[in-house]
Amino acid sequence: MLNYRFIGKVLGHILLALSVFMFVCALVAYLCEEDDVQAHLISAVTCLIIGGISSWVWRSKTVDVGRREGFVIVTFVWIIMSLFGSLPYILSGTIPGFTNAFFETISGFTTTGASVVTDIEALPHGILLWRSITHLIGGMGIVVLAVAILPYFGFGGMSLYNAEAAGITNDKLHPRVKHTAKLLWRIYVVLILLETGFLVLGGMPVFDAFCHSFATIASGGFSTKNDSIAGYSPYIQYVIIVFMLFAGTNFTLFYFVWKGKLKKVFENQEFRVYLTVIAIVTAIVTVTLVFLDHHNGEESLRKALFQVVSLVTSTGFATADYTAWHPYLTYLMFLLLFSGACAGSTSGGIKIMRHSILFRNTLLEFKRMVHPHAVIPLRIQEKTIAAETVYKVLAFVMLYMTIFSIGTFALTFFGMDMDSAMGAAATTMGGIGPGIGTVGPVNNFFAVPQAAKWVLSLLMLLGRLELFTVLILFSPGFWKNN
């Protein structure tokens, strides 16, 4: 039987943590003498009261939590955080309507970066900071944050970590999950501080630098400017490119760098494939822009590299409208919406590792057809990949494409054209932000029909939690008592 008391207590503590960030936004709004102070304060107090009551009423002495509780908590954390996280937008009136406010919030927490705001630069500083903080929290995962904090309240969270980090590889840097989560957050914070420093050196205001760093390292995409990164200097664009690459890298590799084990970094096959894919696609785009569209060489390289890295890492920043490039480049950019970066990173999408396993397994099928009685295992980095893992990858990709197809159908049913529906479904599932059609990099999601926004919100949740974590709740067997 599910431990509902424990679930209620965890959700209460999550709301308490959320109230702290809202108080910070209220302070910034007060210092900037803007009129959204009250909205942040009311939101913070609401989360504080409800979180406190929930924590007390549902208090439990349970030391740990089972896998079923883990899946329930993870899914409902994202939903409840998005519901309460909508309050600052609604109370301040900066985003009209509950649907739009919820869409903006879940887009932030899932680090999708799809926005309904038509004039970002008109938003007060407190709201801009709140948008970026949703990326900050969602980047490493709300539940990973909880795993680092909750042990201090007397209970652990191994099942929560496993449910939230539901990728192929779950490399732990420390045998105790609490220490793993804390170490990941240290790496996360260090990268944010480093990027902020480099952006400030390039002339970006400190406030904007922090907001863009939150979005970059979280692979988010919310900017403080209407034209995203396009109006900034080449130096700043290159800095963001580098840190987007970092954000798409398995965080375990940063630990190896810190320990001086550089050989492990360069031997990592997924990391090499990740860089190779980016290099090849960037070269194709650059050559096309130079010779077919007659663009400047350095500018073409910079725009190509920025857009490719932004899409592969699911960050979603933009410096150019790739839908206005040569048609086959637009199609190439669309394919990148299904890419994803490394497992163990903050990026979304299918991930390089899954693509590698599928590709290698497909090639091995030819050998198995020629030698039907031979045992030919799948190996990556000299390690045999279990058949069970291959089946899981196949199931994931099949389910991913099925949901993409259903989502596209639903969006067209609610009034979107085919190109825009495909782009919107792909970009929200991949946690990227801009797509193609009317939701391309120079547009946003404000004009998307209301019903379609709820479909996209569900796709963002499914994509961020890697499908199975959410969909397992709809399995009748999940709710049966053992």
Automatic annotation (TrEMBL):
The chain crosses the membrane at residues 12-31, 37-58, 70-91, 133-153, 183-200, 235-258, 273-292, 331-350, 393-415, 421-442, 454-479. The keyword Cell inner membrane applies. InterPro entries: Cat_transpt (IPR003445), TrkH (IPR004772). One of its GO terms (cellular component) is plasma membrane. The lineage of its organism: Bacteria, Pseudomonadati, Bacteroidota, Bacteroidia, Marinilabiliales. It is found in: Cell inner membrane. Keywords: Cell inner membrane, Cell membrane, Ion transport, Membrane, Metal-binding, Potassium, Potassium transport, Transmembrane, Transmembrane helix, Transport. It comes from the Bacteria. It holds the Pfam family TrkH. Belongs to the TrkH potassium transport family. It comes from Carboxylicivirga sediminis. K(+) binds at residues 111-112, 220, 315. One of its GO terms (molecular function) is metal ion binding. This is TrkH family potassium uptake protein. It is a multi-pass membrane protein.
